[in-house]
Amino acid sequence: MSVAQDLGAVLDFAEQPLTRLDVFADHIPQEWISTAAALAEKATIRRRRLPCDMVLWLVVGMALFRGEPIVEVARRLNICAEGLANEVLLAKSGLSQARQRLGNQPVEWLFRQCANAWGYERYPQDDWHGLQVFAVDGALFRTPETPQLREHFGSGNTSSNRQTPYPVLRLVALMNARSHIIANAAISPYRKGEIPLAKDFVESIPSHSVTLLDKGFFSADLLLSIQNAEQDRHWMIPERKGTVRTEVEHYGDGDYLVQMKVSPQARKKNPALPEYWQVRAVTYEVEGKEKTVFTSLPASKFSAEQVATLYHERWEIELGFRDIKSSMQDNALTLRSKTVDLVYQELWGLLLAYNVVRREASQAAVAHKRAPSEVSFKFACQHIASHLVVMAGAVSPSHTPRRLEELRGSIGVLFITKRPRPARPRAVKMSKTRYPVNRKAAPLK
């Protein structure tokens, strides 16, 4: 029985004892785990108390129990080959060495394998006029302040003589806007921009889809690489302030075909780009203010009203990032790890854990004929985390009725009835230090 089925059982008030948890096995085939573990950089024939497959789940557990020390996470999840983690205290240094042996490549590989399998799944009532809806956006994470991390990741503002108090790394993700599952992602030091990172996974966007982007991704090279009429692949992005455009054709009220010049810099980087490119511009009013979005969606198939309504779904990826930073990270602004390799490992593990929770929640929603995005991520995350602890510790079945009663008391927050756009800022701005920054930084690989 998966966690999704357990969620369904709780909603149906089924008196089923929670005697097992296959949250990972039901969704991540054992051969994937074995393949990922085999990618560990340092192979050994020694039988360790912490083999690589166990360490993989430790990394995922770190994301689900952000407020707990890593030693406590290992104890809670009974991470040990002999199953003695509750009896024999695991040394913190031993856990750190085990993570270093694993490296970040196996975790990244497992994330990508799962994301590719889950991120493009279609759910009932998932399509928008026959197209899947995706969103692309970026988020920043910061690391502890060490010379090694500062040199590799750089500052959040390297264009001035001041730097942010913590090193910063950048994440750009492709998210299924309906299920909120991350279908692809790229991570790099801060100094690599969002547009180059997004170009790394453009080819993974499926046919019969529309991708919603923030105005920070406004680039003829990027947008034209997404656009493909033969594959019915489209994009949508808000107009950037100061854009120079010429009206070519008038489709209707607030609906035009416009032409823009491709910058010489862009054509120098990619000589295949045309001198001019044409896009559809749709202007609409929100709270008394005019907004304009550019899109490749043809006016012959999609009305201006449909285009304007769809773009509001770009906010779904913001909600996904909020779930990661708020519900999973407990609003902790800084990652735990203190070496470059482990920082990447931790962030890939965080994305993998997020996708596991999201897919379980999606399965539960479908079972109740609801949209996956209607499930409270926070509830689902807490539910899975509590199951991991209970099943790892083999709690007495006599506690099951009490646990079911507690879970039933939380049914009201499982499905979200209304999700207003938050009025508060989405991120805490980091102040800059008054001390000058050392501009010598390792080159991007």
Produce the secondary structure layout.
Layout: H1 3-11, H2 30-38, H3 52-64, H4 70-77, H5 92-102, H6 105-118, E1 132-142, H7 147-153, E2 168-176, E3 182-189, H8 194-199, E4 209-213, H9 220-226, E5 233-238, E6 246-252, E7 255-261, H10 264-269, E8 276-286, E9 289-295, H11 304-311, H12 315-328, H13 340-367, H14 377-393, H15 400-408
Parallel strand pairs: 1-4, 4-5
Antiparallel strand pairs: 1-2, 2-3, 5-9, 6-7, 7-8, 8-9
How would you sum up this structure, described in words?
There is one protein chain. This protein has 445 residues and is an alpha+beta fold. The chain has a domain at 3-109 and 339-413. It has helices at 3-11, 30-38, 52-64, 70-77, 92-102, 105-118, 147-153, 194-199, 220-226, 264-269, 304-311, 315-328, 340-367, 377-393, 400-408, and strands at 132-142, 168-176, 182-189, 209-213, 233-238, 246-252, 255-261, 276-286, 289-295. Helix 1 (3-11) crosses helix 13, helix 2 runs antiparallel to helix 6 (105-118) and helix 3 packs across helix 5 (92-102). The protein is globular, with a radius of gyration of 24 Å. The relative contact order is 0.16. Residues 6-22, 83-89 and 393-413 have low confidence and may be disordered.
Q: What's the gist of this structure?
A:
This protein is α+β, with helices and mostly antiparallel strands and 445 residues long. The protein has 15 helices and 9 strands.
